[in-house]
Amino acid sequence: MMWTQTLSDFDDDTFHEECGVFGIFGNKDAATLTALGLHALQHRGQEAAGIVSFDGEHFNSERRPGLVADNFSSEKMINRLPGDNALGHVRYSTSGATINRNIQPLFADLSSGGFAIAHNGNLTNALTLRKELVSEGAIFQSTSDTEVILHLLAQSPKSRVVERFIDALKQIEGAYGLVALTNKKLIAARDPLGIRPLVLGKLGEAYIVCSETCALDIIGAEFDREVEPGEIIVITNDGLKSMNPFPPMPIRPCIFEYIYFARPDSRVGGKNIYEVRKRFGQELAKESPADADVVVPVPDSGTPAAIGYASAIGLPFDLGITRNHYVGRSFIEPTQQLRDMRVKLKHNANGGVVAGKKIVLVDDSIVRGTTSKKIVEMMRESGAREVHMRIGCPPIKFPCYYGIDTPDKNNLLAANYSLEEMTDLIGADSLGFLSIDGLYRAMGEKQRNPIVPQYTDHCFTGEYPTRLTDLATEPSHRQLSLLAETA
Amino acid sequence: MMWTQTLSDFDDDTFHEECGVFGIFGNKDAATLTALGLHALQHRGQEAAGIVSFDGEHFNSERRPGLVADNFSSEKMINRLPGDNALGHVRYSTSGATINRNIQPLFADLSSGGFAIAHNGNLTNALTLRKELVSEGAIFQSTSDTEVILHLLAQSPKSRVVERFIDALKQIEGAYGLVALTNKKLIAARDPLGIRPLVLGKLGEAYIVCSETCALDIIGAEFDREVEPGEIIVITNDGLKSMNPFPPMPIRPCIFEYIYFARPDSRVGGKNIYEVRKRFGQELAKESPADADVVVPVPDSGTPAAIGYASAIGLPFDLGITRNHYVGRSFIEPTQQLRDMRVKLKHNANGGVVAGKKIVLVDDSIVRGTTSKKIVEMMRESGAREVHMRIGCPPIKFPCYYGIDTPDKNNLLAANYSLEEMTDLIGADSLGFLSIDGLYRAMGEKQRNPIVPQYTDHCFTGEYPTRLTDLATEPSHRQLSLLAETA
Amino acid sequence: MMWTQTLSDFDDDTFHEECGVFGIFGNKDAATLTALGLHALQHRGQEAAGIVSFDGEHFNSERRPGLVADNFSSEKMINRLPGDNALGHVRYSTSGATINRNIQPLFADLSSGGFAIAHNGNLTNALTLRKELVSEGAIFQSTSDTEVILHLLAQSPKSRVVERFIDALKQIEGAYGLVALTNKKLIAARDPLGIRPLVLGKLGEAYIVCSETCALDIIGAEFDREVEPGEIIVITNDGLKSMNPFPPMPIRPCIFEYIYFARPDSRVGGKNIYEVRKRFGQELAKESPADADVVVPVPDSGTPAAIGYASAIGLPFDLGITRNHYVGRSFIEPTQQLRDMRVKLKHNANGGVVAGKKIVLVDDSIVRGTTSKKIVEMMRESGAREVHMRIGCPPIKFPCYYGIDTPDKNNLLAANYSLEEMTDLIGADSLGFLSIDGLYRAMGEKQRNPIVPQYTDHCFTGEYPTRLTDLATEPSHRQLSLLAETA
Amino acid sequence: MMWTQTLSDFDDDTFHEECGVFGIFGNKDAATLTALGLHALQHRGQEAAGIVSFDGEHFNSERRPGLVADNFSSEKMINRLPGDNALGHVRYSTSGATINRNIQPLFADLSSGGFAIAHNGNLTNALTLRKELVSEGAIFQSTSDTEVILHLLAQSPKSRVVERFIDALKQIEGAYGLVALTNKKLIAARDPLGIRPLVLGKLGEAYIVCSETCALDIIGAEFDREVEPGEIIVITNDGLKSMNPFPPMPIRPCIFEYIYFARPDSRVGGKNIYEVRKRFGQELAKESPADADVVVPVPDSGTPAAIGYASAIGLPFDLGITRNHYVGRSFIEPTQQLRDMRVKLKHNANGGVVAGKKIVLVDDSIVRGTTSKKIVEMMRESGAREVHMRIGCPPIKFPCYYGIDTPDKNNLLAANYSLEEMTDLIGADSLGFLSIDGLYRAMGEKQRNPIVPQYTDHCFTGEYPTRLTDLATEPSHRQLSLLAETA
Fold first, then answer.
1. Residue D369 in contact with residue C238, Cβ under 8 Å?
2. Which of B282, B329, B331, B354 is best to mutate for the A interface (most A CBs within 10 A)?
3. Under CATH, which number does the domain B12-252 receive?
């Protein structure tokens, strides 16, 4: 029966960040601060959240499907997570139903003691490694690529836990911001290219490592610096040590953090995200102006670019679409008639703004294009005379393998259609994307370096910065058919 | 132990609308459409929701604490609510813990058959009537004032249900948008002054009565007209009948629907809410300009007025505060240190926008002032040079007795302090409110009619449009000490 | 889909007692002691349980589907029920799914204050009264006949609560053991014929009123006396007062309490239940001997009579059937093959005992006969050579209207078949019932008094001791079609 | 706070069997039949239950704390467990709170495919093996000794799954009845000494392997034979294969299965359990007669021995104690006064039987003696003139390490006190145990063979039949301090 359908078809018209991580070492309210930090990182994953604390004797773990604020805000829950050191994770599941065993942090009882790990990113050789490990007798608990790291670590011939961790890191490929907790250390690592973000902060004497600065802000911690690409940080009672076991290479952070993933109030790579997004809109206005009455954002993701666009082109910025933030996990859809109202669960036209107007509709990106089509339609039904769609990034033509849940290439609108075709499909009067060079200009570069690109931008260019080992051997990274268990 | 504390202290710094109602007659997807309609009305009440359907034989009822999308979106739930006619309600609880028995629609098995009722508003003589009814032998199930209407109806000497309903309405005082469902009829009624809103729509042959037009938009229904103040509408298989059993009197809708309660994309009294709010900002800019670099809204409620203010005064509008929409019901607060981060659960300064700037901070209203103080502080910590606070309505000095949860008078900032004192308390460099006349001008009136005011505006003026019978006899409308039962 | 089926079809082959009540006044552990008392009365109703306490200020109520030990044994639950006075109830639902609103004690907020009531028994004019009350404007919360008493009380013109209660009792017909709790009193009442049992006990200074003495034993309370038929007991801080507002009439307790309902270790009417049941077996052995090797009880209900039968006839008593006590609420039954194993969820033959033997199989009663048939079959499959069935009471030919859930007359085996036919249907080699006179002899009477029978024995004789008002006007007491609401 | 206390202190006065297993291969109702089989084995473990099915493509698993009938009886649950082959387990947890990860069947995704395993028994070298495995890089999911078998299997150098399983079995010591399910096979194994029971049955073409014959009876399956000590059985679509990879040795089944663990209607080692227990009572009567009026069992465990005792000595058997079967998991105990009523949650004296009598009180065994003391006291309070306690097995002096949860030696009454002292402590007028030789005689042996005892009887003799490797190196098998995680 296809009678029920989740919002995910509709939501699939954005990219999904898979994770946010937060670790803290040396504060008596460790679990509370971790809960608050994860709450600030909630936009990076809403499917599930988990916290592991260490209380000097035991590791305590609580992992739940659902939002941080719904599961980790009670005194009762925090009391189950005693200790001065804690590690947390928010997760966006990439495939089907969330399996509870996959909720992070993952934990293993190693010969050296307990080891909890939380991962933002994706490994591109996880399946290949997993097969080898299983053939050697390893028993996996989850279907998560992160567990591969645990097994590599457990089987490392090295004796010290940090050495074993580095041993494991050297065998993996892909993108990661990792934070781990042992009975004596908080350990953090960022992939050598710096694809995924990771920052270091301080709250009094306590150290914090987390995915974005907004998680420092919420607890009043100070931003110290970014964890360097390839850097491993080890925090103990004796302070912080840093090492970098990888050969030097040019960094290449994911540009989509700037376009969509990161929170507007975060600073990534020294840049305020919101200001960058406004500049995307400003560049877009220069490259792709429109003769219109008003600039309307697709809220909330398109708002900063729309503000930039409006100011650059000199048109009024106005809220022609109201967004409903009370959206749950899914909504039923009994009939074709009702199917068409899916977009209305989140968005409604504000007739007072758009009726009789020529509007520029600004969004951050187009993935499948299904939402754009509905929104344009909604604008016209509310009386917009003309609808000019403008997109604050270049056309997305290639899927991501670094921890972002993207549709297959044949579901990416720009991978399959020309600009003219897309304009027709979406039903707009005109359609404009930011150019690659415009994108790099907004980032403060003169232009994209074609030899050594400054950013990971494969979704636009197809140039992947690492090997894609699993992809070469496996048709899909979703073929793990483990035990299905409810609860 | 006061170790945990809910967000409500903090949230109390807004007014809370108590309810939204939605009824539909004559569509085979009645329960689904009601769930969608309630989802669109979710801003009017987030504590609980309920739907009653009639399937030609039985009334079916499901009532749950929590959000519509979390409880009424599954096929399983909708299958429990068969029938072509349905009635729904979203609720904001005014006192302490939600008691499940109070979740509406309420239901009674009368001698004439089943009768379900949903109510937006508040009766000002409910306690007085309840005492009389109990002394005559009535047994109440809930502590809700709405149940008084059921008992008046049950005990009416009239024989027909509509006559009995009118009989009941004539005995009650206060504000209401009511929708009721019997085995043959959908009945709606709006209070004679039109204090609470109620609109009529059509979807094909089906009739809809609901609190706001946004609930019509979400299901693709057409707005027909407002239910008139004092009008009773009876919908059966034979169509719609209208009657108005009250003596004619000047209407007086609640002005706070325009300021805060209604959704920006709704039309109330023929006006687009968002446009009215922008005009509040424009009038405010005229009355209370500021020498500044940028206009920053307190999101989301202050955004329309900020846009209006910025355009009128000719300053850039910019998002200096990021709002986190993933806020759950409560968050712990173990220490004084953590207490101060409450405001950060929802709001974070966007340093890139405010640092080094003179800013105008625009909000829709000030109730207790606790949030304003924190936000001003947050702006300063992020480097704002000057903070000029501007409020899109007059000072709130009097509590509400018409279905809005307001603090006691001694917790209303403007009821207790002068403008100068308030400026100091909030920590702003300057503070400006919209005047009463500015408010009326923005509403399209020349000025407030002092004899017969065009709107219910007692929160600013202290002029209550109806008798306050209970208040005269009872110190508080929260003194009902019924059986405490956990769900 | 009839794929699932509850055990109830199978369980319907016994009578079901509908309730047990327990009230205590004046002990600081009132809720704990009530929970323990209800646990001892669990055999009288397993569907749901509830406790109301009064803490000097508020009434507190917790009502749950399921067993007492599963719901009322935690510190957390007991802490929700503070106070020195408490009232509890266990319930067997007579119809379909349990509706949570029907779980007792019921509560009403009367003009005189809160009033909680728990009822064991059934009113035979409840529907008739309910119709009158509803036509006068009463709103019912439940479908329970007990609520009629609350409304009669609420509408009584008398001023004092005890007078109003007596006023209500004078209008009802049927069988009842009632206990009620107000903010100052514990009130108990037993029907004028003493059909349902009710006993009075003391624990230190505290008074207890409950259905059976086993509930006194479990808390170490002393049995004081039975509540007299027609007696109303009022317990306050000043002690106990007794009154009997009914005209004197010969008492007539339900004889089925002795045969099946009461726990074997309880004393009812001055008699030890277990000893009476052994005497049923002894009389049965005299009236209906069998030539056999061993006497086997159908456990647990048939065990006392089997012990009596074996000792009287001089045969060994042996456990030829093992009973599994871990039976839940229902068990699936996907195929015809599986349907036949229903009886095995509870009972299994003990081959070591019955193989090759001539056995006398003793049970307390036969209702539908379906279990008896299966058990006889099970005995034969395990190698019994002959199976002589003996029943410790007369043939049941008439349904009950006094609070016992009985099948319709056409499902009562003995109402439709001769002894010979029943023997054939059950598949036994012989079948014998205790005679009416044997039954009365075992009770210590010379014989049944045909003019004024000493016991309520209508299930055997068809002689009902009260008027059956509802039955005269209503085809079924199950026709209430109120609002269906899931918990 | 010690305010709440579980029944377990009280229940600890028996031994606890830890598990029951049930596997079926080749029936379309596999999960239903497994649920029924586990229900029949519920006496072997009430803490948790689990079922894994294989549907030809996927393994499906459902594991729940609580009773089988409460969790595995719904159509919904059974529908989650499709397939013709299934494996189930009931569990009694030995330590503290049940950890959900420990609920069996356990599952691993091996290189050869999925492998589910269920275990009744205990390994005596599990901790030693676990340490080795962890030091080699194995990551354990549970604290269960059973998982050791999974890792040994995963790491076996052999290629075929049966060979790898045998490889694992050869490394473990202790007692086990094991059943495993792969995507092609049902595999069973019994420990070489046959300490734990395991039987083979057939239902049409389907094979069943389970702990006791009562699980065959409930589904109407035929008992085929016992699985031989040391035998490995492999069932595929091609039928059953048997092998025995262990050197021949004299078998030595656990004698406590006959005394307490097995259900009375099961046949173990060719003997009907109930008949054996009656013979224990008969031998006891010969060895330890008493001058009394009546023989009273401690129900239900003492009932068969009491029947045997009564018939051998020629005294009437009578039910002087009523047992309440509705006992939940725990019951609160706020005060000392209430503490003494713990025993009454399960047992109540039947005054009609014991008052004024000299009674022989028969129980199956004495562990801590706390229950015996309470029951003797209860008999005296109900008026028993003399209480002669008789126990249907020898004094228990040594703990068990083969899957039975026993108290430490210093909590075993008979390990610390003389007969005279025990008589005093219990408060009986006399106390008698069955002798070791009486025990063996009742088992049909002439006497115990002191060189090669016919049964595992270490609880009486201290002679353990296997090495106790962990005990030699570890003070306690409960010292695993893994991650604590709430479900």
1. no
2. B331
3. 3.60.20.10
